[in-house]
Amino acid sequence: MGKLPQEFLAKMKQLLGEEYDAFLASYEQPRQFGLRVNTGKISTAEFERLAPFHLKKIPWVENGYFYEEQDAPARHPFYYAGLYYLQEPSAMTPASVLPVCPGDRVLDLCAAPGGKATELGTRLCGQGLLVANDISASRAKALLKNIEVFGISNAFVTNEVPAKLAEQFQEFFDKILVDAPCSGEGMFRKDPAAAKAWDAGKPFACAKQQKEIITRAAQMLAPGGQLLYSTCTFSPEENEQVIAYLLDERSDMELLEIPQYAGFSPGIPAAADPEWMNAAEMQNTSDAFEGKYADLGKCVHIFPHKMSGEGHFLALLRKKNPAVSGDRADTLVCDRSMGMTERTESRIGGPADGQRKDRRKNRQGEVQRKAAAASKAETEILEEFLRDVTMPLDTSRLEIRRGQAYYVPEETRENKGLVFLRNGLYLGEVKKDRFEPSQSFAMALKKDTYAAMIDLDYRDERVIKYLKGETIDVGDLAEAGRKGWQLVCVNGYPLGWGKLAGGSLKNKYHSGWRMKY
Fold it and tell me: Quick one: pLDDT at residue 2?
């Protein structure tokens, strides 16, 4: 580890007190490598059986694993099949804490490159809506790719500023994740370049932006909904002080307890004081000030000297519901292992049943008008291809626009003026007399959900050739006379498409996704 900035070290000594020496010693330890299993495609038990890696469970993330650098999982076919996401272990925590259930409306406001959005989308199980947004157009493209690789079919990928989203989505979302842009102090061990780029003014500049972002997020949260704020920094200016600001600005927001794990450190109420660095000892902060923000102790810090990961901060908040008292507001119970949901209360603060029915009727009418605009021939061509797909599809969500076929989330059909990269799942292109399925459609298919399949073992050298864009001979796997579109899989999990003729598979794997030599 290179030299750390002196101003940063002084802040950490003030923040940690007696733990400072242990914190400093942690920078001499090697970084940890992690991957998170895509449980929308494969169970953790099956992954442990199948993956040829040196895996060790991350104890505080149910589908997270440590691996060894020598495993090189980014070069493995299972990575291209979307069976896991490579993610720093501490960074897995925010999405694992936010209680997302199938059917929820979910927003990841600062989503690129997609580490947290892919987990949120997986937990929706294709139900409800995931809005994944990033203000950077280039980063949003990386976000879209990761969502497509994970096979998420109900995502609306946007490229907007939070204020523009807030105009359309007032009190709309059940769950919101804000992994805010920050000074990155928690990543100094993983990325020494971040330490070199740090200066004492950066946390204050970031905090100004973070306060704007979290305020907009609160506007978009439905009554009874939950908001998870996180950063990968230690700075109180970007953590406790941002949460204190939100609580001061909005009396309808309250902090919730985060499920505890050995090694989690509580938030520090005294650090909400902008003058905390000037105190001789933080414990001497006035009782009145510390009492005002006592609930900040419900937040969580992850420090590298106490856990096997880098630095992180988490705060879980709920928007109070004036219509419901106590803890009954929007109670959700998820059985994540089965992907099932039980709501003990319906969405609170949403439209009445009659209004819901009217809106659904209007949406259905809009779908019918759009369907009528597409030629009957296009619809028939698409439907003919879909006969070989056994994965359930709601036909009312199918749209064809200028020959491009999409599977669109019900909630986003009437978006107005938002800049977006993808609305739902891109299925492919309807041409004059045929349908050409897309790469994203292949990734959204589950194991054994397409009738014509070429399945290769991950140790078969043809898998790598396919991922590099080469034509491969599959005569030993295909029935005599079989031809046409084939779903190419590795150990049963889809990789992409190929077109079969005479035992030879013409490669249709997305050119931009191909494995580099």
Answer: 65
Q: Is 334 inside a domain boundary?
A: no
Q: Is residue 346 part of a domain?
A: no
User: What total number of domains does the chain contain?
Assistant: 3
Q: What is the pLDDT of residues 114-134, one digit of tens each?
A: 999 999 999 999 999 999 999
* 372 and 484 co-located in one domain: no
- What is the predicted pLDDT for the residue at 395? 87
b (16+ CB within 10 A) / e for 153-171: bbbbbbbbebebbbebbee
Residues 268 and 372 in one domain: no
CB 124 within 8 A of CB 102: yes
Q: Which residues are catalytic?
A: 232
DSSP string, 466-514: HHTT--EE-TTTSPTT--EEEEEEETTEEEEEEEEETTEEEE-S-GGGP
- Average pLDDT of the segment spanning 66-85: 97
Same domain membership, residue 238 and residue 279: yes
> Cβ distance 166 to 214 under 8 Å?
no
> Which tokens in the block code for residue 321?
């519901």
Q: Which of 392, 415, 449 is the last residue of a domain?
A: 449
Point out the domain boundary residue: 264, 295, 319: 319
Q: How many alpha carbons fall within 13 Å on the CB side of residue 232? A: 21
Are residues 202 and 267 located together in one domain of the fold? yes
Average pLDDT over the chain, rounded to whole? 89
| 173 domain-assigned | yes
Could you tell me what percentage of the chain is helix, strand and coil, using 3-state DSSP and rounding each to the nearest 5?
35, 25, 40
Structure tokens at 422: 């993808």
Q: What is the dihedral of CA 51, 52, 54, 57, to 10 degrees?
A: 10
Residues 312 and 443 in one domain: no
Strand 404-407 to 398-401 pairing: antiparallel
Confidence of residue 353 (pLDDT cuts 50, 70, 90): very low
Instruction: Determine contact, residues 127/107, Cβ cutoff 8 Å.
Output: no
pTM confidence score:
0.90
Let me know whether 108 and 251 are in one domain: yes
Domain of 425? 353-449
